[in-house]
Design goal:
445 residues, alpha/beta, L-arginine/glycine Amidinotransferase, Chain A, three-stranded mixed sheet, 15 helices
Length: 445
Amino acid sequence: MNKLIEVQVDRIVGPTHHFGGLGVGNLASSKHAGQISYPRAAALEGLAKMRLAVKLGAIQIVLPPQRRPNLGYLGALGFEHDVPELFAKLLSEAPHLLSAASSSSAMWTANAATVSPACDSAFSRTHVTIANLNASLHRVTESTETLVDLQSSLPANFMIGAPLPFAVALSDEGAANHMRLCASSHVNEAPSRGINLFVHGDGPLSPQRFRPRQTLEAFQAIARRHGLYAEDTFYLQQHPAAIDAGAFHNDVVAMSHHDCWIHHESAYVERTNYDAIESRFRSTTGTKIRRISVSQSELPLSEAVRTYLFNSQILTSLDPDGPAHLICPAQVVDSPAASGLVSRWIDEGLFSDVHFVELGQSMAGGGGPACLRLRVPMTLDEARDLDATQLWSLPVDQQLRDIINTHYPESFQLSDLQDSDMIRSIEIATSEIEDLLRPQSHAPD
């Protein structure tokens, strides 16, 4: 049968990866603002996670870093000078704008788009809406390149749409706030309908410390675009206390995979109707949701945010009877509460094993394993037709490592952009990775 699988889409961390402290409501980002970053280590850590995902049975798409600093963005803001004089001027007059233009935040592909498979859509076609990310100064520039990247890497029959209009009421941060629940792969070999949970931050109750970055209006528009069935679509308001505690996206306090939904008890407002969601899931799939609510006594909300337990990545292999693997950030190991929950879930058979990954550079910017990947459901036939040049393989991995080790700066801070040799190395690294990962259909004659 041509079953539905999840392909993982990760992006190589860029050579200007740095800690700008620009993430709204992102405690890790604020904590590490201005510290020296290590782009080479960051890129290699991301590659190691991709290698592990493939080892565990995933199909892995690899995207190149977006070009940074973004000179077009700076030009639109009125900065027209030669490089590196331009960067010296920005460091003096508007360092936050240079930081925004140099951000490598596109590495967190969970914010790249929202994806709905054809089986969930009245249009019988997989739909992808690129996130506008207009809540953040440094991320609003990502969508143009993301649209091009996903159009070139995903199946041609997918409907890949431009971002929603750039308006405060339509702020959209993509799949980090979306969960699709469906029957386990061993239950249905053919693609079958699931239910969609969209998590927004705005609503009758408002955070007091941080403004929400995802709106209900945006997700309602995306659901209409994608042709989702109203009866299978639910909108949950993230609890203001969770946002104020540093859960700036749903995937900091919840995770899901197939029929499994794990969330902190403080993830959503009290009026959330779990019974209605569970009842509809039974009607749609013929099975039950495995919903686990983690209490404050089991794992304090602050500890959930510190460890990013809920930002773990869940994977199953292409084998319909294969186990579910859990990829956790290494910070979970140091937390008795978080590691205890993981051990219990394995003992209960929820996951077959756990793999702890070191993502120190991404975590310092506020991104765990799940932040670094976009899940794209597609059929096996669609996956087999993906361009091999953009898929992770050992030869591609080695070539990427060679480029990173040769051209990426070992350490980086914004003032380094005044060095013409540094700028040249950044340009070479980005160009060589782009050439390596360029789809065959786009290769020069």
